[in-house]
Design goal:
With about 450 residues, the chain is an alpha/beta fold. The chain has three domains: about 1-130 and about 280-345, ANL, N-terminal domain (Rossmann fold, 3-Layer(aba) Sandwich), CATH 3.40.50.12780; about 145-255, 3-Layer(aba) Sandwich (Rossmann fold); about 355-450, ANL, C-terminal domain (GMP Synthetase, Chain A, domain 3, 2-Layer Sandwich), CATH 3.30.300. The protein contains 14 helices and 19 strands. The chain has an eleven-stranded mixed beta sheet, with helices on both faces. A hairpin with a 7-residue loop joins strand 8 and strand 9. The radius of gyration is 22 Å and the shape is globular.
Length: about 450
Amino acid sequence: MYAKLFSLVLFPVYEIFNGRGTHRFLSEYRRTQWLDAEAITGIQLDKLNTLLEFCWREVPYLRRRWRLAGLRPRPLRSIRELETFPILSKQEITENYLEMTSIPWRGRSLVKTTGGSTGDPFKFEYTMESYARRSAVMWRGYEWAGAGPGVRTASLWATPPLRGGWRGTKERAYHWMFNRRILDAFGMNERNIEDYALALARYRPEVLVGYVRPLLVLARWITRTGYQVRGLRSVVTGAEALYEAERQEIGTAFGCPVFNTYGCREFMLIAAECEQHAGLHVNSDHLVVELVDSAGLGVTDQQGDVIVTDLHNLAMPLVRYRNGDRATPGHDACPCGRGLPMLQSVDGRILDMIVTPDGRHVPGEFFLTVMLGITAVKRFQAVQVADDVVELRVVPNGTLPQSERERITSHLQKVVGDSMHVNIKEVAAIDEPASGKRRVTVSLESFRARNPSD
């Protein structure tokens, strides 16, 4: 009852009050998902040509880069013609940041920083409209799992320290209004895991959302102890690859279906499962998602690098942006009837978990959160080199200041606890695995497998 009231009345009023249009965009995307594949491709192409025309006119770096590649302004006749445009890297954007920012939006846009699933800190800009649209796409994907606006939800997610004063009161009211409770995934350990189960039992959510690894740890504890969390209709996972065996474990423990999602901080939700669980629907009425080989050409029958174009972000248009992930395309249409194309799987996002001597399970996302905004570090990787030692390997921009070193160590130590030693080691480079997908964290098991003599 509350979810319906929230979706129809409170959510639109909240969005209008905050000067956004998320509710309107959600209505748009709810409609376009049911168009056939050809119609969705037509919408996508129209949006893409509008974006490219804007970029040629207003984004100096892209204009110069595209001219050097032999391109000239013209409407594209098919999405496949986008393959003629060069692929953007994080490094390229960072080194040309001002010229990557569109002229009309300089000084007027929102700014976000991401640690990136590969450990490369990255800053980018976006418009309020693009934020509202990506929020709408996120809600649409969550609706497929029964987790739409206002549905009673618990999230095993990253949660910053609760603020005091007016801002803290506002945050609590915000979560209350959206009918959700956030449990700190980074604070869960073997000593307090029962408290998390009890909190879920008391809150009685209809949906549980969380990182794969912490959900798996909690699910295994529930299975081992026979504890029951009643009333859940679905579990929604994100931030890491979800393998079938893990899906089964989580679903069995919580007694409900598990829905996989795929996204990244630069775009939010990229793809998600619907009720058919036949793969992940790509949000192609909002983004262009390509899978390419090492030459940058599209693949249809094999795993490829994920290349994304945001069709609505005019502040810093990310056109053919390589986000560092790998995925496998799907081929069959989903039985649900939606015209959105499919990914068979997301293969390249693997974040190992650090397990401390006192039983804490620290997911890779925690290290990404700590390193957000640390501009003195170009790249990093957390490696558990012993039962009680985690080594944070950093590639600094010059020299890592002692103040930043102490700040990072302090943040890490609060979560890994006194039983684990934190060492920060400056290195010239982070070793790349044969797959080309560097892990942001390496567990002790993985470290020992790679270094059998240690």
